[in-house]
């Protein structure tokens, strides 16, 4: 396949300087998107702002801890909560970007994959056809992955075990009571790391100690699941912010609002997510086969791009690839509930899957990461890699084309949204995006 692509493009391989130019244009497009969103006014009604506003003014409810802190801060400071949320989001986005860029440069890995729609680029895409009035970086996602990174560093540090347990649980409880999805991509791998810490030849005993160490976080997850909330809770939360904003009479809560979502019926929500994820059709395409193709393509790109765009300082060999692959497959397995019945926000789920996997791969020493799972997991990962390489031979031209055309529908299944999240579309749309930013800032 690589040879056919080389012939099509009229050269031995896609010229690296050409792809560098395309990459820079893509970064500019994402930067313009970010600035357009930064200075947009969203208001309490938007899904992105309202997700942060869930608090305990209607009683204890899932996802309410950060909102309660924001409510207290806004009440006593008088600072506009929307800009507080934007600043928090920007700080965590900056931390996450700095972490991955520095880690990739230190390891000699290619930066090409970082801004793609399933990695850091995922936070710039939204669930709307008008991607310049709504966005995804104003979410709790960057904060959640950042806290996982802090926890991974705590686990590999030389501090006493008790300090590790306390620190990991304090951070874990905070983020789980802010958004329970953290439990799926963080707690399983933290459990395995604690097993490694306790393991002195008695695996069962180490497993029990590891489970006991994470019990506070597990209890917090159970409480978050039980405190589901209802419409009365949602109305009380909305009214609390209306009073704080001085809106009298209070405006009614909109239906397309994250606060309302906490009161959705669980069974109906599970069915809705299954339908949106796997049974939806758009422009004659059925979502299930599209996702069955997208998952292996994303996996193929992230496991092969590092070696394809290899630098002299890169130590990414077959063993490293197998370790990364095993981590990716494990994280994907742990997130199956989220990918099936708990969520239809595939843009953020891919973001959690890929960023958490790379965080583990980059932070945990290779000798530990290569023994984190049972031996069969690494054999399976190696077998999957061999199968995919036989289908598509890794090469720079093939990899560059895949990276330029891959797209992830942010919410549910939408062909338009998948196209809008591709590198090609963002570059072609750059003049329009620039004009919209100019109008927003100067007119």
What string, H for helix and E for strand, traces the elements in order? HHHHHHHHHHHHHEEHHHHHHHHHH
Could you describe the largest sheet, including whether it forms a barrel?
2 strands, antiparallel
Major beta sheet, strand line-up: 1-2
Count up the helices.
Answer: 23
Task: For the structure shown, list the relevant keywords.
single chain; 443 residues; mainly alpha; two-stranded antiparallel ribbon; 68% helix; 1% strand; globular
Structure overview:
- It is a single chain.
- The chain is mainly alpha-helical.
- The chain has helices spanning 2-8, 16-38, 47-53, 65-77, 81-107, 141-156, 161-176, 182-198, 203-213, 215-226, 231-245, 258-261, 266-279, 287-308, 318-334, 336-342, 346-363, 366-369, 375-391, 396-405, 415-420, 423-428, 430-442; strands at 281-282, 285-286.
- It has a two-stranded antiparallel sheet.
- Helix 15 crosses helix 19 (375-391).
- It is globular and about 65 Å long.
- The model is unreliable at 5-12 and 128-134 (pLDDT under 50).
